[in-house]
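Entry for the shared binder. Reason: the reviewer on the internal report wants the predicted structure included alongside the sequence.
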Amino acid sequence: MTLLAWSLAWLIDFVIGDPQRWPHPVRWIGNLINAVQRTVRRLCRSDRALRIGGGVMWLVVVGLTYSVAWSVLTLAAWVHPWLGWGVEVWMIFTVLAGRCLARSAEEVARPLRENDLAESRLKLSWIVGRDTSALQPEQINRAVVETVAENTVDGIIAPLFFLLLGGAPLAMAYKAVNTLDSMVGYKHEKYRAIGMVSARLDDVANFIPARLSWLLISAAAFLCRLDAAHALRIGWRDRYNHSSPNCAWSEAAVAGALGIRLGGPNDYFGQRVDKPWIGDARRDIAIDDISRTIRLMWVASTLALLLFMAVRFWLIGAA
């Protein structure tokens, strides 16, 4: 039943994603983060105090998320096993973001194909932290490919990994870890102190999933008839060409598979950030690389699901 729940949740995400009007735990987690952050900022004035307060915030948000998820799942199963199973499917579905990620990328690509740069830049600004106001088509393509490649890890592979380790409650706790990083884990002056713990622990949480993504994306490249050997080689060669210890693994694998170059300088919060290049520019990046990256994401996530299901099945058999 557990493996069936995983499969059904993944299939629901693949088909419908996250409808905007539906209630979603990530929004609740975001509201909790905002409430706790306001309290921390009111009580903590110095950078040292903000770092400590940020650590307390992390414990409160992640601990409460896990506790509530475990309690709701346990209560539902106590009321009726089928209700518990349904709640488990719903929880797993909500921590997966494949369809949402694909839809967001396609929303940027659609006006770009119609030469509507203003609309494409606007849609891109909704999913990236960089300044999009003056980006040209090649830079927009690169930003979308990077976003899909990076979020293949924290939007799909990592939640499935923590689902394997600790079921739906731990996958939900991981989502809280990732949401904390996305909301406060910036190096910008406003968040540097309060978000330090969130940023570093998100790096810890994604350490294994990011490295698995290198192998899974390379395998997906083979199945998609792209350059799997180059994905493996570039993924390993450029794995540290990023300020994050994790992001370059998936981005470099995608760059290698497509034969393009990612990374490079970008503007964040009005500041120029010179990032190293990832991959080799065998050709210029094109708009069709967005759809190719989305396809790599879906195939890699399917492989991740099958891999973790196989491990789970083996563990059950071994027990």
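Summary line for the report: The two ends are 17 Å apart (CA to CA).
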